[in-house]
Amino acid sequence: MCHKEILRGKHPLVGSPLFLTPRFILNLIFASRASKVVNQGYQKFRTRAFQVVRGEGNLIVLPNSLVEELATLPSTVASPHGALEHDLLGSYTGLDVILESRLHHSIVQRRLTPRLGLITPRLEKELIPLFEELLPPSKGEWIEFQPYQVFCQLAARLTAHAIVGPAFCNDPVWLDIAINYTENLFKTIVVLRLLPSWTHSVVSRLLPSYWKCQGYIRSSKVLLGPKIRELLGRSEDGSLAPDSNEDEFNVLTWLAFLAKGSERKPDNIAHTEVLLSLASIHTTLLRMLNVLYDLTAHPELLEELRVEIYQVASSPEGWNKPYDRLYKLDSVLRESQRMSPPSTIGIKRLFKTPYTFQNGLHIPKGTYVCMPVYAIENDPEHTPNPDLYDGLRSYRAYMQSQSTPGNSNNSKEFQFSYANDPNVLNFGYGKYACPGRFFASLIIKMVLAKLLVEYDFQFLPGTGRPANLEVHEFLFSWPWNKMLLRRREGSTFSF
Ligand code: HEM
Question: Which residue minimizes the CA distance to atom 40 of ligand 1?
């Protein structure tokens, strides 16, 4: 869409400092301060749609009142994966495969999530040696460490247990692919999205990160191929029973068991595995990291969380389904995600057919729409004192709801993984919401429960909580920040 078309468009344009600001400048403004631009539009046009310029086309940002209708539209009308593929420049990053199959989504939703209780003890067992390997040896003295790097390894190894299973979960080649495909994908899109779309096919070839992404996808096929072929063979002769053998209780086996048609090609299954690593590792590592930063900045909460963890462990039920009972820890996760979400916009959809909302808003085919999720959740009408970090905000709301007569069973709506609140949208909303959020919640809590009981933390002298970094709509954290940790004497957490 050229600049004249933007001006002729019926939705007001936000983020343009002058009447005729060139399009590439508007794109740079979005790339460097997307949250401010979108927030400005949200404040000004609360009940109507507005548009902002992003390199490849305009985003139509919809008002909060349309979330329910938008989220219930079928993907044949408003496609969530079409928008994701568009955002992550699928044809340059290999992500276009999500348009061909939805198996990666349904495997997580229908196989992994219902079986989380069964894989939890295995993950907990795995965590003990992982802590020994990845955390620096402290005998009570303060030691420097890089929390991002430690959480990255923890998230990658725990995720790999569920995704590729024991054959590859500690394989350095797989871990390299699982972590670095994502990092190179983001490097590629951060650069390409600064430039006009017509340059992408040439410029992408000049980027080392582009070639690395291609290489990681190729390596995944070489590494996983023989195992996938074996599993497919067994699925064909009827000897594969993924739920009966602990070693085969993982996404790789379920994929071989359930894939149909072209999904059964070993290369496609390997590629799907890489996509699942993309969806899971950095999202969970950033949550662990931000929670640690928040708690180190608010040490008064730490003791309260430790007491909760001890109480749950020593309750008559013992360490049985404990993560659902760590209400304060859950609240801290949710507050962290409110203030430091992975993306400032969400509920992204690419319209495959024209559609008219019930309020009369018409969306033509091919339009990209989204919701200003960061601005919505941080609106004082939805979150009082939004600039204030209040780790127990949701916990108190939950306790209050429990004491309201007739409301005592309704605990889910305050949970980190809840995705049916029109004002809390970081996992999406309704049936297309992130299918991996329950797994994410589980491994984040597992890591934090052990970490908080066993260690104390401090920022380096003279420094405070590292600020979030923002590029395009993404929020992230500098990977090389250092902190101090100290082993707490006599505190061992053994699940
Ligand atoms: C804190 C961690 C995570 C966050 C914040 C997050 C967030 C999201 C969001 C916002 C979406 C898009 C929903 C929509 O279309 O409206 C999504 C989709 C998805 N997520 Fe997550 N996610 C997280 C962890 C995970 C994990 C651990 C997994 C896998 C085990 C996972 C698997 C997926 C999949 C398969 C999709 C669908 C992608 C597609 O449409 O092709 N996510 N996630």
Answer: 81
> Which DSSP state fits 107?
I
Given a contact cutoff of 8 angstroms between Cβ atoms, the answer to whether 75 and 431 are in contact is no
Whether pLDDT at 315 is above 90: no
Ligand 1 pocket member 334 (CB < 6 A): no
What's the DSSP call for residue 146? Answer: -
Q: Is 279 in the pocket of ligand 1 (CB under 6 A)?
A: yes
Residues 266/259, Cβ–Cβ less than 8 Å: no
Please tell me the predicted confidence (pLDDT) of residue 211: 97
Q: Which two tokens stand for residue 188?
A: 């590629």
pLDDT of 431 reads: 93
Ligand 1 pocket test, candidate residues 106, 284, 434, 445, most atoms within 8 A of CB: 434
Assess whether pLDDT exceeds 50 at residue 424.
yes
Which contiguous run of DSSP H or E holds residue 1? none
Q: Shortest CA distance to 333 belongs to which of 245, 236, 446, 492?
A: 446
Report, as an integer, the average pLDDT of 454-463: 97
**Residue with token string 């739920």:** 243
Nearest to 54 by CA among 343, 473, 474: 473
Look up residue 270 and give its two tokens. Answer: 């390997």
Instruction: Please name which of 350, 367, 375 lies closest in space to residue 37, comparing C-alpha atoms.
Output: 375
Which residues, in sequence order, are bridge partners of residue 421?
Answer: 424
Structure confidence at residue 1 as a pLDDT band (50, 70, 90): very low
Token output for 136: 């620096």
Closest CA to 242 of 338, 119, 361, 335: 119
Determine the distance separating the centroid of ligand 1 and the alpha carbon of 162, expressed in angstroms.
Answer: 15
CA atoms of 424 and 417, how far apart (whole Å): 10
Distance of CA 220 to the CA centre of its chain: 22
**Cα–ligand 1 centroid distance for 429 (angstroms):** 11
pLDDT band at 4 (very low <50, low <70, confident <90, very high): very low
Instruction: Tell how strand 57-61 and strand 368-371 pair up.
Output: parallel
Question: Residue 218 has which token pair?
Answer: 């190729």
Asked if the model's pLDDT at residue 494 lies above 80, the reply is no
State how far the Cα of 264 lies from the Cα of 98, in Å rounded to an integer: 15
Burial of 57 (0-12, 13-18, 19+ CB in 10 A): middle
| pLDDT tens digits, one per residue of 110-150 | 999 999 999 999 999 999 999 999 999 988 899 999 999 99
* E strand segments, 80-164: 143-145
Q: Nearest CA to 63 among 76, 49, 53, 74?
A: 49
From residue 356, alpha-carbon distances to 11, 64, 66, 373, 446 in Å are 15, 16, 11, 22, 45
Distance CA 185, CA 213 (A): 6
Q: Which tokens in the block code for residue 259?
A: 């894939």
| 8-state DSSP, 483 | E
